[in-house]
Design brief:
6 helices; OB fold (Dihydrolipoamide Acetyltransferase, E2P); alpha+beta; Rossmann fold; 257 residues
């Protein structure tokens, strides 16, 4: 199970060490870094990671207050040299609290613990039938999906969706403001979405073409407006380029073959 991670740390050597150690752990991807409390909050809101590694003391605030107001917070792991803040951290439902200096073994332990928490939560949703997706049964111009989270029905317009990534029998449905983890198959969802706006770029990924920020043709990868990086299969790359061409956007400085 892949885990997407952000790091909030104001000391560059400490940030570099944490990034290096995380890069050695399989299925862990660092997708963003912040050096202030405010930028950490914006980073989490924008990229909606699975885990945020947070320092306690940072310019412009601290890691504890940076979490205030987050509607859909990730798993939080505090990394600090100050043991006296542990109680306050766990009051904010921190997943773990690491004291500096830490070892790679300790970091690996934390990752596996958080991975187990996420897996258990998702399994619980499946057993309770709390995460489902269905097409909105209405003749409207803009298609909508119904996402069932617990006892709440959330209506998501297709235009809000940035990308969908499959993981087994689950789907990560990403919007510009929230991440939904729902039960379903990507083949089913592909048929629900407007074909003129959404493109299957990989067997495990669908993207909203209008939300593509950049395409790395050589690496066969695209990046969305919120920074999600999605692999593009070799056979689907040409179709992706054609879909972008169909938007009629200018290609400044580019040379066509």
């Amino acid at each position: 199970m892949n885990l997407r991670v952000v790091i909030a740390e104001d000391e560059l050597p400490a940030m570099a060490k944490l990034r290096r150690l995380l890069s050695t752990i399989p299925e862990v991807e660092v997708i963003g870094e912040a050096r202030t409390a405010r930028s950490a909050t914006e980073l989490i809101r924008t990229f909606r990671p699975d885990i945020a590694f947070m320092d306690i003391k940072m310019p412009g605030g601290d890691g504890l207050t940076a979490l205030t107001g987050l509607a859909d917070p990730p798993k939080i792991v505090f990394v600090t040299a100050y043991p006296q803040h542990a109680a306050a951290a766990f009051e904010r439902r921190a997943s773990d609290y690491i004291l500096k200096p830490y070892t790679s073994e300790r970091l690996q332990q934390v990752i596996e613990q958080v991975r187990a928490q996420v897996r258990l939560e998702r399994f619980g949703e499946l057993l309770r039938g709390e995460s489902k997706v269905a097409q909105f049964p209405s003749e409207v111009m803009e298609k909508r999906l119904v996402v069932k989270i617990g006892s709440e029905l959330v209506f998501v317009s297709a235009g809000e969706i940035e990308c969908i990534m499959a993981e087994g029998n689950y789907l990560h449905l990403m919007t510009s403001t929230r991440k939904y983890f729902v039960r379903g198959r990507i083949d089913m969802l592909e048929h629900m979405l407007p074909s003129k706006d959404f493109l299957r770029v990989h067997r495990s990924a669908i993207v909203n073409v209008s939300r593509i920020r950049a395409i790395a043709i050589g690496n066969r990868e695209l990046r969305t407006t919120s920074g999600f990086r999605i692999a593009v299969s070799r056979v689907r790359m040409r179709r992706l380029i054609e879909a972008v061409d169909d938007l009629g956007l200018p290609s400044l400085g580019a040379r066509r073959n």
